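Progress note, project year one: complex with fe (ii) ion.
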Amino acid sequence: MYLGANSYSHDSSACLIGDDGKIIAAVEEERFTGKKHEVVFPVKSIKFCLEYAGITSQDLKGIAIAWHPREMLLKRIIREFMFEYPVPWKMFKNSLRKFWRSLFLKRDIEQYIGKLNPDVAVRYYKHHHAHVASAFYESGFDEAAFFTLDGRGEYDVGIWGKVDYKNGIEMIAHDHPLPLL
Ligand SMILES: [Fe+2]
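Model obtained:
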């Protein structure tokens, strides 16, 4: 089974996916804390998902997060510093925090949840691609055109393209607020 964790950002949550790609459990941390759009490491959500499936952290084959640290660094943090100076400190701090903390996903799970199998796969996915995947793979379609819009992913505010089971996500174009280097 595979664990997805939306951490270090608003609406912290967790999701457990079976080996067949089907969702077993998914929940937002705010259901446990009572705080809307909770921003924490989703300890309670992860524990709930594992308990629901009757497994421990050591049974996980992979863990994933819907942020890509390299994209965050190259396409957001450096650009914010170069083109948007002076970026509001809170915004810049949040970007840095999200980048830095996402590097320690495995460590955080082991610290708060339990030991992981040494062979566990750790995957980082681009934010908009994660949005596409969450819609497409539960849609029942064999193929689809997609268009995402978000406040901001790592950097893009929107991507569009096509997706199918054979070729995965193929981005045709994207939009972003500042010039790419
Ligand atoms: Fe998003």
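The pocket of fe (ii) ion is lined by residues 127, 131, 150 (CB under 6 Å).
Helices lie at 30-33, 43-53, 69-83, 89-102, 105-112, 127-136.
No further modelling is planned for this target in the current period.
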